[in-house]
Design goal:
alpha/beta, Rossmann fold, about 325 residues, 12 helices, five-stranded parallel β-sheet
C-alpha cells in the first residue's frame, strides 16, 4: 500500500475531512509541520512515495534526502515555495491546483477595493460607537468616499483571476486596461492592452495578479511608484513580495500613493515590524481570499483528483512535465 503524507492540513480541515485519502493508501496526517525545520519535514516524509502540502516548503535538501518520494501534490496554485527544478531532476511529479480560487480571489479583490472607496467597515464601527445616534444630522462620513464608474482599473497580469477581475471592473463601468509580460489576444472591445509604464501612469486602481518570480519580486518599488498617480489605489491579492513594502509605506506616508489594500505580506504571518502596519491608509487582511468554504472544498476535491489520476498512471495539473 502506497504511503501518503499530508504535512499541513489544519487550515483546510476545520470544516472538511480527509476520509477519501484514507482509501487511497496508508495516509498520515499532520496539522502543522515547522516550515523552517528541514529535518522535521524529512522525518515526517520518511519513506513516503506521496507528499501533499499546502504551505510547508519542499526544497532541494528535503528532496535529496526523501529517497522514496515520487509525487508532490501542492494544495494551491503558487509554487514559489517548492524547488521544482530539483523535483524534475529527481523524476518527482509535482502537481498544483491552478483554478480552484479564481472566483473567490476576484471577488475578494473587489471586496478590498470597495472597502477603500466606500469605507463600509469604518462607518459600521463608528455607528456602533454611537457616532451616528449622537450626531446632529441624518448622515455623516468620516473619510472620503468615491465612485468606481469612470475610473481606470489597471491589471498587472492577465491569467484566469485577472480576467474575472477585468469583467467585474467593466460591470462597474470602469475603464479596464491590463499589462501581461507575454502579449495576449483579446476579443473584448472594452478592454485595452498597454505597456507596464502606461498602466502605472494612467490607472486609478492598480491590481496585481502575477506569480512571484525573481523578475516580479519588488515590482512595485520606488521607481514604479513614482510613475503612479498620487491618488492611486494599490491592490495585492497575489504575493506579498511583489511589492517593496518599505517603498510603498514611504509613498503612503508622503501622500504619493492614496491607499494600499492587501491580503498578503512579504512574510506570513505578518511581522510586527512590517512597515505597512504603521503606514497611512492601509487595509490588510490575513491571506483569506482563497478561504471561502466552497473554494476550500473545491481545492480538496481537485487535490484528491490529481492524486487519483497519478495513481492511475495519468498525470494532470503537472507543473513539471515528467
Amino acid at each position: 500500500m502506497v504511503k501518503i503524507v499530508l504535512l499541513d492540513g489544519y487550515k483546510l480541515n476545520n470544516d472538511l475531512n480527509w476520509n477519501e485519502l484514507h482509501t487511497l493508501g496508508d495516509f498520515h496526517y499532520y496539522d502543522y509541520t515547522v516550515s523552517i525545520n528541514d529535518d522535521e519535514i524529512i522525518n515526517r516524509i520518511g519513506n513516503a512515495e506521496i507528499v501533499i502540502t499546502h504551505k510547508t516548503p519542499i526544497n532541494n535538501y528535503v528532496i535529496t534526502r526523501s529517497t522514496n518520494l515520487k509525487y508532490i501534490g501542492i494544495m494551491g496554485t503558487g509554487y514559489d515555495m517548492f524547488d521544482i527544478k530539483s523535483a524534475f531532476n529527481h523524476d518527482i511529479v509535482v502537481t498544483n491546483v491552478p483554478t480552484y480560487a479564481s472566483d473567490a480571489v476576484a471577488q475578494f479583490t473587489f471586496s478590498l477595493l470597495l472597502e477603500v472607496v466606500s469605507q463600509v467597515g469604518l462607518h459600521n464601527q463608528l455607528v456602533h460607537q454611537k457616532r451616528w445616534s449622537q450626531g446632529p444630522d441624518f448622515t455623516f462620513w468620516d473619510k472620503p468616499l468615491f465612485e468606481l464608474k469612470g475610473k481606470t482599473l489597471g491589471i498587472i497580469g492577465y491569467g484566469r483571476i485577472a480576467q474575472k477581475v477585468a469583467k467585474i471592473g467593466h460591470a462597474f463601468e470602469m475603464n479596464v486596461v491590463f499589462y501581461n509580460h507575454r502579449p495576449k489576444e483579446i476579443k473584448e472591445t472594452w478592454l485595452k492592452q498597454v505597456s507596464l509604464d502606461e498602466l502605472l501612469t494612467i490607472s486609478d486602481v492598480v491590481s496585481l495578479h502575477i506569480i512571484q518570480t525573481p523578475q516580479t519580486i519588488n515590482l512595485i518599488n520606488k521607481k514604479n511608484l513614482s510613475k503612479m498617480k498620487q491618488s492611486a489605489i494599490l491592490i495585492n491579492t497575489s504575493r506579498g513580495k511583489l511589492i517593496n513594502e518599505v517603498d510603498v509605506a514611504d509613498a503612503l506616508n508622503h501622500d504619493k500613493l492614496y491607499a494600499l489594500a492587501t491580503d498578503v505580506a512579504s512574510k506570513e504571518p505578518i511581522l510586527n515590524t512590517n512597515p505597512i502596519l504603521e503606514a497611512k491608509n492601509v487595509f490588510i487582511t490575513p491571506h483569506i481570499a482563497w478561504a471561502p468554504f466552497e473554494t476550500r472544498k473545491r481545492l480538496l476535491e481537485i487535490t484528491i483528483s490529481n492524486l487519483k489520476s497519478y495513481l492511475n498512471g495519468e498525470v494532470i495539473n503537472a507543473i513539471n512535465k515528467i
